[in-house]
Amino acid sequence: MLLRHTPKGIIEREALVINPAKTCQPIGAMYAALGIKNCLPHSHGSQGCCAYHRSMLTRHFKEPVMAATSAFTEGSSVFGGQANLIEAIGNIFTVYDPDVIAVHTTCLSETIGDDVNQISAKAHESGKVPAGKHVIFTNTPSYVGSHVTGFSNMLKKTVELVSEATAEKKNKTVNIIPGFVEPSDMQEIKRLTSLMGIKTIMFPDTSGVLNGPMTGKFKMYPNGGTSIEDIKKMGDSQLTVALGTFASGAAAKSLDTKCKVPCEILELPIGIQATDRFIDTLRIKTGMNVPEEITNERGQLLDVMSDMHQYTYGRRVALAGDPDQLVSLTEFLVSLDMIPVYVITGTPGKKFPAKIEAITKGLNEKIYAKNPSDLFLLHQLIKNEKVDLMIGNTHLKYIARDEDIPYIRYGFPIIDRVGHQYFPSVGYKGGLRLLEKILEAIMNRIDRDAPEESFELVM
Ligand code: SF4
Q1: Poorest-confidence range of 10-19, 23-32, 179-188, 333-342?
Q2: Which of 9, 42, 360, 382 is deepest in the core (most CB within 10 A)?
Q3: How far is the CA of 142 from the centre of ligand 1 (A)?
Q4: Is the pLDDT of residue 203 over 90?
Q5: Which of 142, 146, 149, 153 best tests ligand 1's pocket when mutated (most atoms within 8 Å of CB)?
Q6: Check: CATH 3.40.50.1980 for 295-453?
Q7: What is the CATH superfamily name and number for domain 25-158?
Q8: Any residues with CB less than 8 A from the CB of 311 and at least 6 apart, and which?
Q9: CB-side exposure of 312: number of CA atoms within 13 Å?
């Protein structure tokens, strides 16, 4: 009973977060930067911040995460970190030889007011950036937003700094901005587009970087990531498909503004309807056909959905996590005739409650969708009215244990299990895996609680 002090009575809170449903902005910025080929993320702040960001990513992906820091001391905390960052840029190119350094700020450097734009220009002027190398940077003050905001900020700033429209006529390439998803999801999205015969540039792309094989050799920059040349070429593509409004929308819009690449901003392709919209958008916009392999995968998902409907029908579910995932997950659960009663995220954004409301409006049940909110409130809601299933990151395990509720780990961070790096949850195949996990959790509980006379061999 680790959370035994959570009271049932809910009091409106404005200036206090308890047990947050988010992590800090730079973690998202660092994750986005790891999806760039030969890139070393750099945290402009104290060593402690950088150690925390790296450790969260390392624990989630079970891979070493390389990043540098400006290593603020008391002096830089008072007078600013310009000297530290300029020196760091020179040292990093000399010692670690990346193609790109992706600088993000932290609470401390933002509070001092360090101008990374100006510092980067100064680093160029003072010859710290070798020819052909790049420094990109973004602002990620963690007292606003969440890791999703940081991810979005890094993508937006990168396309603004790097992408270029070089030709009058756009080529047939489609840019895919995959959202704050797992490397396995990025791999799955690439598999689907390649099955359709569509040439794509995916940015960022952490597949191969954070789910690479064990080779016995350490590689500072694993094979994988979007090259800076490809990010540049994104300005010449015919279309950008951004998956997830919160994580990918801003970068897609910036690319449209800067390079006149039109964009389609879709929800993450989690579940049957969102995947249908993704595949259909690609089909309509590129004129390519949907191959039988994809149609079969869709049919398999549909088959299991209808075969196992008796186990999903009417089950009440509590969800917590990132907004893009929650919107698509909610839609998927509704298509399974489940009832997503509580939907909580720590990431701000005005559109979130309205999106959940639109998806759940036909349900005969009061749906509680709130942002920014926290896991303390989620626990209180569950205490007041129980659910049959919980879906969310590792932090939900305490509530699941205290309230004895079946629980599926999903989202970021998952630091006590593996699998998310390797098995996708996007696309029809991903939907099937997600459904399998849902059924496993529900049916295990039915087995556990069944009286002896109705403990069934066949279910
Ligand atoms: S001080 Fe700010 S940037 Fe650093 S770890 Fe804490 S929340 Fe993140």
Answers
A1: 10-19
A2: 42
A3: 6
A4: yes
A5: 142
A6: yes
A7: Nitrogenase molybdenum iron protein domain (3.40.50.1980)
A8: 439, 442, 443, 446, 459
A9: 22
* Ranges of CATH 3.40.50.1980 domains, the chain: 25-158, 174-291, 295-453
Given a contact cutoff of 8 angstroms between Cβ atoms, the answer to whether 378 and 318 are in contact is yes
Nearest to 130 by CA among 84, 87, 94, 85: 94
Q: Which two tokens stand for residue 298?
A: 């869709």
CATH number for the domain whose boundaries are 174-291: 3.40.50.1980
pLDDT at 52: 97
| Euclidean distance between CA atoms 148 and 323, whole angstroms | 9
Tokens of 61: 């992906």
Are residues 379 and 307 in contact, defined by beta-carbon separation less than 8 angstroms?
A: no
> What is the 148 CA–ligand 1 centroid distance (Å)?
14
Q: Over the stretch 312-337, which tens digit does the pLDDT of each residue have? A: 999 999 999 999 999 999 999 999 99
* Residue whose CB lies within 8 A of the most ligand 1 atoms, among 22, 25, 31, 52, for a mutation test: 52
The CA distance from 250 to 229, in Å, is 21
How many Cα atoms occupy the beta-carbon half-sphere of 316 within 13 Å?
14
Q: How confident is the model over 85-100, as pLDDT tens digits?
A: 999 999 999 999 999 9
Using most ligand atoms within 8 A of CB, pick from 44, 107, 140, 147 the residue to mutate for ligand 1. Answer: 107
Which ligand 1 atom is nearest residue 27's CA?
A: 8
Give residue 49 CA to ligand 1 midpoint distance, Å. 5
Q: Is 70 in the pocket of ligand 1 (CB under 6 A)?
A: no
Q: Using a 6 Å cutoff on CB, does residue 49 contact ligand 1?
A: yes
